[in-house]
Amino acid sequence: MKKRLIVAAVGLILATSACSQKDVEITANGAQDGSPIALTQDKLSIIGQQLAVNYRVVTNVADNHCDKDSAGGKCFVAEIDLTFPVDVATKDWAIYYSQMRPVQSIEGDEFTISRVKGDLHKIEPSTGFKGILKGQTKTIRFRGDNWQLAETDAMPNYYIVANGSAPILIDSTKVEIDAETGLELRPYAADFTDAEKQYKRTENDKVEWATSGVLYANNLATKTDPKLAENRIIPTPTKVKITSNTAQASLKDGLKISYNKVNPQSVKAALKRLARLGVAESDKGLMVTLLPLSVKDVPGSYHLDISAQQITISANDDAGFSYGLASLTSLVDVNTLAVNSMSVEDSPRYDFRGMHIDVSRNFHSKQLILDLLDQMAAYKLNKLHLHMADDEGWRLEIEGLPELTDIGSKRCHDLTEDSCLLPQLGSGPFSDTKVNGYYSKADYIEILQFANARQIQVIPSMDMPGHSRAAIKSMEARYRKLLEQGLTAKAEQYLLSDSNDKTVYSSVQYYDDNTLNVCMESTFTFIDKVIDEIAQLHKTAGVPLTLYHIGADETAGAWLESPVCKAFIANNDKGVKDSSELGAYFIERTASILAAKGIEAAGWSDGMSHTRPENMPKKVQSNIWDIVAHAGHKRAHQQANLGWQTVLSQPEVLYFDFPYEADPKEHGYYWGIRQSNTKHVHSFMTDNLPANAEQWTDIEGLPFEADDTVKRDKNGNIVSGPLAKSAAFSGIQGQLWSETVRSDEIAEYLMFPRVLMLAERAWHKPSWEVPYQYQGAIYNQQSGMFTQDMRAQQALEWQAIANTLGYKELIKLDKAGISYRVPTVGAVIKDNKLFANLIYPGLAIEYRVNGEEWQLYKAGALVKGNVEVRAIAADGVRKGRTLRVQ
Predict the structure, then answer these.
(1) Predicted pLDDT of residue 34
(2) Tens of pLDDT, residues 848-869
(3) Phi/psi class of residue 867: alpha, beta or left (left: φ > 0; alpha: ψ in -120 to 50)?
(4) Whole domain around residue 251: which residue ranges?
(5) Which residues are catalytic (predicted)?
(6) How far apart are alpha carbons 425 and 154 in whole angstroms?
(7) Which residues are catalytic?
(8) Helices within 578-632 (DSSP H only)
(9) Which of 51, 318, 363, 441 has the fewest C-beta atoms under 10 angstroms from its C-beta?
(10) Number of domains making up the chain
(11) Would 786 be classed as within a structural domain?
(12) Are 381 and 397 found together in one domain?
């Protein structure tokens, strides 16, 4: 979806030889008539096993040779070396690979590159092809749109096909897994070595590569103080009163729960998390009494009273009791199993505290979702936005439409797409990989019930009308199958595309066939069917479907030349006057379909902005994904002022598929920002979006201005302006999009521990947030509304949270089996002495010199030579990524 805008992925591109044997035309081993023999399956297998691929970025700074009509004149330059293990003389072969930004130009005439669909490309020998000798290396220099700033851009799993043969995976392009870190390695992608050429987008780019020295300077303000973690709860409660640091409540013997009228099942999950730390239910344990809260408060509110003799949790709903136990869990030190005497009064800032995960681009297991839900509950998040259908995959079994999962849940090398979707995102030619898959009906029911037991609402999302290629191709395959059986009416029942539509368009991901035809009644028959079947699964689970996310974003100019749509506009009675209103018509009609079923519609802010509010149900939700640095506050204010439930989902702070740090070895996309670590998420001022201009920079590290004053068009009509005093945001949501996320481990790496800071911002309103100026204001780094006192308060709060993460909280993620990101180490050498630090004080640091044995770091250690540093996870097992001290 929107997220992935400025990204270049690797392609396998063949070119003129760099060897001394260049220009040698192969004629050996030819047929009797002198023509070269076609590649055999045995030769293809050898190529798959031994072809060496090396990819390297030369520069990301545009030059005068960039295509001025493509990507706004922006391009990167890269080179690929390919060393062949056999002679190749024929032209009857092609290599398929994923490249997410098109090639602008190639030096040489030996090969052509054509885009098959989306990011799937094909390389074939061209007119200048002279053959390849065994051991010969071919090199190409080429230009591609925009930038390539991360090694994860180099998509894996290239494969070769010849003369209709079965596809052969090229082994050298497989990802490897680092045994110590659990991270993916791409041996075919060369390291970045030149920050100015390779890691700068433009000459004005001020983003600093997060070297050990840069990280050291960034971490200096965060002092090590384990005492700050002692009484800290994440997310921060409304009010905490420490009654005694000496009268401790020991939990070593466990807890004896007096439930009173509370259903034990409602807090079972919260107690299970305590048991994982060593605090189990026991008749000999400390008494914990659950009581009704004497005052009415917002849902999820609770009081927690701890003394040496007993613990009391008071609440008025299941969530409140669970959250009280979650706060007790947060207070527990896993080494002592003791907590100080205190009282806590707490309630959430926002009702909507959400996390979104995309399982459509690359599939993620049911277990990952269950583990995520458990951690969401631990930190008082209450909405899971489950994105299960997009261009690259349909991930939920739908009764009566088996093609959606038989075909739409997997990608493989079937150019007809009768058995699967085309490969995308480096998925490779075969369907039996972890990036393919779906949730059965039973799986989804289990997810719903698991979430409900943790007071979490699951919001299903099947993106429409754009981002719908998986559904469209699945229904086209169904159509062809039924048509062959002579069942024309049944074949057309759920058809989503007009075969006579000649519209030429391209989505953000370069699809020209990914948008439902909104003029066909069969489209709405399909939508109605899907919603009813999902609603039935919710009913079976005992969890009614009340909120459904339709996507509604990034519709790419489809329908203009569709005969069906032309007839629809000419003859319809739906009030659609021209094609520009079709997108709004779709969203409005789908929202009405949902409303008639008692289900609220949700969508992304760009699509929702095209609707006519008077045609929408009164109650709708919009996720605001506009970038703050690009005036993103304007649409947020507009839609909140409509009375809609607006959920903040800003990319540069809430997209967890973006890198933690500005480093080409970090996983993640970067089209909205180049680094978004846990401290950055903590800094988010949610109720005053434009005020973030005082503390943040844009994607190139440059200051920006946010103008929140009233703006009018030439006719005097208001086009943007401040948030109304009667309006408010409903909450915030973190997002993990999965284009570059190929495993559950990488998904957890990218989500955690940022999810904890998402919870912090969703639950707690900080004292340092700049009050919103309802009269309108202009914010920049000189406007001064974010005062020095506020900045100091923010820094103190972060210091406490950082120490809490390092000394107390990350070990709980380890015990839950969560593969969170172990941070990279800040380090410098002064007078041959090593000094190192971390974003989370409390984790162990190791160093080694000249590749020798790793040693435990002590400040001021004498070193000489090549020094490397790494951090160790809280449990002492997993390692963080190694950095060289520069």
Answers:
(1) 53
(2) 999 999 999 999 999 999 999 9
(3) beta
(4) 239-346
(5) 554
(6) 10
(7) 554
(8) 582-596, 605-608
(9) 441
(10) 4
(11) no
(12) yes
